[in-house]
Amino acid sequence: MTVEIPMNYGPVVQRLIAEGRYRDKEDVVAEGLRLVLMQDKLREDIQAGLDDLNVGNRIEAGEVYAEARRRIGVIEEKLAR
Question: Which end of the chain has the smaller Cβ count within 10 Å, N or C?
Answer without folding.
Answer: N
